[in-house]
Amino acid sequence: MSKPPHNPLLDGKAAPPLLVVISGPSGVGKDSVLNRMRDFSFPFHFVVTATSRAMRPGEIAGFDYHFVTTERFEAMIAADELIEWALVYGQYKGIPKFEVRQAMATGRDVILRINVDGAATVRRIAPEAIFIFLAPASIDELRQRLSMRRTENTHEIETRLAVAASELEQVQHFDYVVINREGHLDEAVSQIRAIISAEKQRVFPRLVNL
């Protein structure tokens, strides 16, 4: 069996682009982590997820999400325009294919922010992606975060916590785990940056084909 090609860094070229999946339970801070990475001007392409849910206060269309109607989202599903999609708490979310392919074709690393089920789908079609599980310091801390954002009632929060407990068991299928402790966002972001930096130095790099 022939070995995969070695890292182009050894020839003075750029390392191949990476596909990085950041996942974890609802309320763990995936959006906050990505926004902080943007604040630091990380040189990545942040794929914008499409969703059928309503825009929340402070969100920006095309930046936080592509906000589309349920009818438009279902048309995207029918046309096979999504890498993965899911119906989450009665609302559609999915990753448009064109954004990922265009970015990687230009040599840029791509960051995907998706739920745990979505990460499993990406793992099947792109096993060479890097899978990072963002976890809370505790379920109690996660409960507090969900309560503070004031977008769900008590019953909805408890439902999300029950799902989160199940999702935490899926960490075994990920490459890395990063704990996003309350008040320590920059620490979590630094750990993710270190993971990506180390992956770029692999002798035999991950090669993603979509």
From TrEMBL:
In this chain the Guanylate kinase-like domain maps to 17-197
Query: InterPro entries recorded for this chain?
Result: GK/Ca_channel_bsu, Guanylate_kin-like_dom, Guanylate_kinase, Guanylate_kinase_CS, P-loop_NTPase
Task: Give any GO molecular function from the UniProt entry.
Answer: GMP kinase activity
**Alphabetized SMART domains for the sequence:** GuKc (SM00072)
Q: Which positions make up the signal peptide? A: none
Q: Looking at the record's lineage, which domain of life comes first?
A: Bacteria
GO cellular component terms given for this protein: cytosol
Query: What does the UniProt keyword field contain?
Result: ATP-binding, Kinase, Nucleotide-binding, Transferase
Query: Which top class of enzyme applies to this chain?
Result: transferase
Tagged with keyword ATP-binding: yes
Pfam families membership: Guanylate_kin
Return the similarity comment.
Belongs to the guanylate kinase family.
Q: What protein name does the entry list? A: Guanylate kinase
